[in-house]
Amino acid sequence: MNPVLAFHRSLPGYAPTPVVALPGLARSLGIAHLYAKDESNRLGLPAFKALGASWAVHRALAGRPPSTVVTATDGNHGRAVARFARLSGHRAAIYVPPGVPAAAIRAIEDEGAAVTRVPGDYDAAVRAAAHAAAAPDAVLVQDTAWPGYEEVPGWIVDGYGTLFAELDEQLPSPPDLVIVPAGVGSLLQAALTHYRGRPAPARTAVVSVEPRAAACVLASVAAGHPVTVATGETALAGLNCGTVSSLAWPHIAAGLSAGTAVDDPEAFAAARLLRANGVDAGPCGAAPLAALLRPDFPLPLSPATSALLLVTEGAAAV
Asked: Full-prediction pTM beyond 0.85?
């Protein structure tokens, strides 16, 4: 068995998150099937981030004496790191940029972590966390990579692979289209690794969606190389990232089918639609449906299309 999947299955409370069929929305879009992978309760946390954080903390801290696990976050990753650090008997120090909701900070602190607010954007918080992790008893568990720091982010991407292993068992066949929320691109990398590793002709189109206020994947694809964008305010806090992970970029450049961006009102409207159809979704998790509903969705749809939405967080996510 895949060692990452075996590890996740060994954790208390593990269960595959559900795949919800959305036939009414499929009909309104003129496609054959629409599914949502609902990550609103993953290992007791309201977002998929628990998969990457649990595996990376396990790998990074195996055999170490009590240490401080350090990371930067817009919310869900930091809470997940704090949770699994605590369960492993370690401390956690979490760095957050402005704009992270007070409820998110409280949730991280409730996991026993120390939270430091950093002036500037998410990239500034990442730099502050990396600096703090230079202490001898500290370990950085960051979900984005840069040259010289790629092993731990690679473990996080490996952790996300469990989501796609579950999908292989839950869906009757690979979908024609998967829409993936993209912040720094680590979940997108996991999707591309999974679907691009399949033999032809089972080729799934993979489309990224970002907030228009922080569309670093779109800007990088347009430029043909990674670029950093200035980020603005958005309710899609978990996707408010200005720089693509260096580990994700080669996968994006080689395998991304298309990308798009959405505004906050579109994400909120999509979240309401999903909740009306039995899927608990926050704005980041609803971004894939918001993208699919746009009249300028970048790929053609047909009556035979089978599409999958990665609903990465629930409405309770912070």
From this structure: yes
